[in-house]
Amino acid sequence: MPELKPRWDIFCAVVDNFGDIGVTWRLARQLVAEHGLPVRLWVDDLRAFERICPEIDIDQAQQWQHGVEVRHWPAELSHADAADVVIAAFACQLPTDYMDAMAAREQPPLWMNLDYLSAEDWVIGCHGLPSVKYKTVQKFFFFPGFQPGTGGLLRERGLLDQRRQFQQDAEAQRQFLQSLGIDPAPGVQLISLFAYENAGLASWLDVLAADAAPTHLLVPEGRILGDVAHWLKVENLAVGAIHVRQSLTVQVLPFVRQDQYDHLLWCCDFNAVRGEDSFVRAQWAARPMLWHIYQQDEDIHLDKLDAFLALYTKGLSPGAAEAINGLWRAWSASQPIGEHWLATRKHWPELQENAEKWCLEQGLQADLAAALVQFYLNWI
Ligand code: TRH
To answer: How far apart are CA 291 and CA 230, in angstroms?
Structure first.
């Protein structure tokens, strides 16, 4: 008799932006592709999903994409049979009917809360601990992270080899960039910019424009475009727009599918990223980067920023560490970063090396999907 695979349900409530759906979609695909598991992904906002996966039919309550059963999670969810493993992403509240169905099972499911990513030390102590209970069903904390003892980071099998090969293949990069309408001048510095609104942007663009070396800045459609338009002194910026100011070429890109975005990061010399998922993907690109952290109440995000910086800058010389700390902190506080950028440029080779080293080190950890599967195997 064929072995019965445990069924997995992942619940994703889209709070805002694309991080919630970005992470859960990646995880669902990986559990199917690499672990052969039957996975249902419940999403309350299919429009957000459609932005990162254009094949999504927003009118379908049930559809299959990349082997994942995608379910629209309606306001009222009844008659759902509970799976063997249930993941509530980012502390989303499961429907009561569904929790009742979990409790009604003969063998209660493994129920986990997949938390937000943080480099803070307390995460290690809390990862895997029991959380609340619903009737007979125990919930567990599952924390992604950068250090041993955490749940690790999402990383598909073979991703780093794929990335290396692509970065060594100038023609593949040229073709990819061309497919997005990007035709960089030879030797130009390529930078991608994905960020929230940021008053500090103008100071960076001033410095890039005045630099002797040319820069081609690639800006996917999104929240930062207003600040870019303001600096360019144009009314609005549509996809495909290209503007040149002294040494700086600014180009607006469409919002592309997740795998294309990865390739974009791999092509660039420097990536400005935000939130959670693009932040991790830029680390896998192994190039110097800048993180616009998601702002939280009472500035608790600043602790997360400092915790990550402490790990990321550990092996750097004091000058390079100071430059990166200054740049990242100023950017996340929407302060001018022109001077910090110039300081950072002075340490470029060291920062490139550090980005490679960090990626290698992180790549040695078990990836998050494998860690979840292992958690389940230890639990049964
Ligand atoms: O969109 P975000 O700001 O998401 C945020 C964070 O996750 C934050 O922690 C969370 O609390 C909040 O949402 C609700 O940034 P993030 O996490 O980088 O997600 C963006 C996703 O969009 C990521 O999966 C990459 C993807 N993407 C594309 O697929 N194509 C693109 O062109 C771009 C720019 C991004």
So the answer is: 22
